Fold each of these.
Amino acid sequence: TEIAETRQPVRVIRGFKLDSAYAPAEGYRYDGLYVVERAWMAKGLTKGLLVCRYAFKRLPGQPPLPTRPAEGKESE
């Protein structure tokens, strides 16, 4: 949890594989600066494996995040 304790900003890159309206349609996109609010260990998909999980908070004063339309809706 050292990174959560220092409150140093981290740069976030978001990928197209994420199931989110904030994910780019293709490729990867720089999504700005965040601070780590919390870090913890969680069970991974493989038995006995642990993964690091993080809760991020976006720093203020950045342009809004682009979103893509929800599935099934046409964009105007």
Amino acid sequence: VRKYIEYASNIAVNLPSSIQNEIAYYVDSLKRRQYKYLVEITPKTVLTMERLCKASARIDLRNKVEEKDLERAKPIIESSLNVA
């Protein structure tokens, strides 16, 4: 497990501009619905989404973020916003 973690943490993950745009659209949609959440949606939310997507790609030992990484990160963000 240690070797896996060491190898995965050394992978340089690329975030394509198409995924960056999708992240921006998603965070914008969250911003429009922010009255429903306990916390404010800020520009840091975009950075959080990017980091979650990159972490998802690292888990699968890929060097490029894909659509499935974004779909994996969305429920994590939404569940963190809905904590009461």
